[in-house]
Design a protein that fits this description.
It comes from Phytopseudomonas seleniipraecipitans. This is Putative tricarboxylic transport membrane protein. Keywords: Membrane, Transmembrane, Transmembrane helix. Helix content is 72%, strand content 1%. It is mainly α and 501 residues long. The chain has one domain.
Length: 501
């Protein structure tokens, strides 16, 4: 199965899709204002007519490239292209200002590659074993895990448990539109035949993450201006082998932090790069130099944020729980191809699983080669004005939404969800819990009803079954701890940083 999975990717068409997706992801990640989540959502309709291997390989390339591309603008402009590159600006831009842009870029690129490869090794070793355990799950366990993942993401997104849970509840209500999963009774359709099949996932997804981002960027006063790029010295790419070995401990520690944070749903690269940077500074022999242009900070930030990519795929592929925002989009990518991520994925789609593993390795290789080869071209792309870029993105959004079912109703849904996402961002309400509620709502409902049918209406098996009861207890603990932290912060605002740590 492993050999067949590798061979399923080693053909010209799939390799070109991986290469193109990775390079496009780098461009999207490098342009400030565009995110890897938006890029994957934007290209999701393109994969609709592809085979699952080709479509998911393209999305994985976008994921890897978009996560890495943020280092370009972070170093050259002091603007993180993605939230996972925030810590890269701390030492990357000072090095570029000192005439060491080439060295800063090369250290960051290689750190990204090694961090990504480390997390893929963990994914390859852990995921099959975890899936074997999850094969014992029934409707009680699936209900508990889906509820746990929804609550966890809602609690960790946006810093407000109430807002996170509120957004998740909105997603659950939207998921109820259409035919009931078992009885096929129409709900909340208001007589509209277009809603009998429910709201399509792709238009909602494109609206929430792509259209809302376009509206937010268009709202800014400098939307017509392009970032000013300095003529940095891009020579002296690379560093000595001895210096590379000197960073081994920092790289290993940061990669472990990134992978572990990636596995925890709701955190991702935006958290782990700051944690890894803090750990590197703590264990450094010269912490006072951090922030002035030292390579240790770049190694920590870039190896950790790319390590989070493989970590986020562990719960996604074994339990169907996305580890971060982009993994939630990848979950939708699986579902539009009729594939449900979870423990059965390794039993029924083993060829696809190992094909994805291979695509991820190739994407990391393409990322390194592409960043080194087309560095100057990527830097020039940073000067594209937003008043040219944003209309092109909006046009692609409309084409993608219309092309799913060839109906304008989906375009209207996309625009409506784009407006909802924009308003939620202005109100500081997290969007990811809404998406997770929309995706996990049917899973929660189906397994709840199946469990009640098998127990003849008795709710106790959801609590008395060991795994289900343990997960539900963990859900209550997470909610209680998050609520306590928020209460403590409101009572003593001066100690927010202490309580959060």
């Amino acid at each position: 199965m492993l050999i067949e999975g590798i061979l399923s990717v080693l053909n010209m068409q799939t390799l070109l899709l991986i290469t193109g997706g990775t390079l496009l992801g780098i461009i999207i990640g490098a342009i400030p204002g565009l995110t890897v989540t938006m890029g994957v959502a934007l290209f999701l309709p393109v994969t609709f007519a592809m085979s699952p291997v080709d479509g998911l390989s393209l999305l994985m390339g976008l994921y890897i490239g978009g996560t890495s591309g943020g280092l370009i603008s972070a170093i050259l402009l002091k603007i993180p292209g993605t939230p996972s590159s925030i810590a890269t600006t701390f030492d990357g831009h000072p090095m570029a200002a000192q005439g060491q842009a080439g060295k800063a870029l090369s250290v960051s690129i290689l750190s990204s590659f090694f961090g990504g490869v480390f997390s893929l090794g963990v994914l390859f070793l852990i995921a099959p074993k975890l899936a074997e355990v999850a094969l014992q799950f029934g409707p009680y366990e699936y209900f508990a895990i889906a509820l746990f993942s929804l609550t966890l993401v809602a609690g960790l997104s946006g810093g407000s448990l109430a807002r996170g849970l509120g957004a998740a509840a909105i997603g659950l209500v939207i998921a109820f539109v259409g035919m009931a999963p078992i009885t096929a009774f129409p709900r909340f359709t208001f007589g509209w035949a277009e809603l009998d099949g429910g709201i399509a996932l792709l238009p909602a997804l494109i609206g929430l993450f792509a259209v809302s981002q376009v509206l937010e960027e268009a709202e800014s006063r400098d939307s017509s201006q392009a970032p000013a790029t300095a003529n940095f010295n891009l020579r002296q790419m690379g560093f000595s082998l001895r210096a590379g070995f000197g960073h081994f401990g920092n790289w290993l520690r940061s990669s472990v932090i990134g992978t572990a944070i990636g596995i925890l749903p709701g955190l991702g690269g935006s958290v782990c790069n700051l944690l890894a940077y803090g750990a590197a500074k703590k264990y450094s022999k010269h912490p006072e130099k951090f922030g002035t242009g030292v390579t240790e900070g770049l190694v920590a930030s870039e190896s950790s944020n790319n390590a989070s990519t493989g970590g986020a795929l562990v719960p996604l592929m074994t339990l169907g729980i996305p580890g971060d925002n982009t993994a939630a989009i990848l979950l939708a990518g699986f579902m539009i191809h009729g594939i449900t991520p979870g423990p059965m994925l390794f039993e029924t789609q083993g060829l696809l699983v190992y094909g994805i593993f291979t695509a991820l390795v190739i994407a990391n290789l393409v990322m390194v080669v592409g960043l080194f080869s087309f560095m100057r071209g990527f830097v020039r792309l940073l000067s594209v004005p937003k008043h040219i870029l944003l209309p092109l993105i909006m046009m692609l959004c409309v084409i993608g939404a219309y092309g799913i079912n060839n109906r304008l109703f989906d375009v209207g849904c996309m625009l409506l969800f784009g407006l909802i996402g924009w308003l939620m961002k202005k109100a500081s309400i997290p969007v990811t819990p809404l998406l997770l509620g929309f995706i996990l709502g049917p899973i929660i409902e189906v397994n709840l009803r199946r469990g009640l049918m098998s127990s003849q209406g008795d709710l106790m098996p959801f609590i008395t079954e060991p795994i289900s009861g343990f997960v539900l207890l963990g859900t209550l603990i997470v909610v209680a701890v998050t609520a306590y932290k928020e209460f403590a912060k409101s009572r003593n605002p001066n100690n927010r940083a202490v309580i959060g740590s």
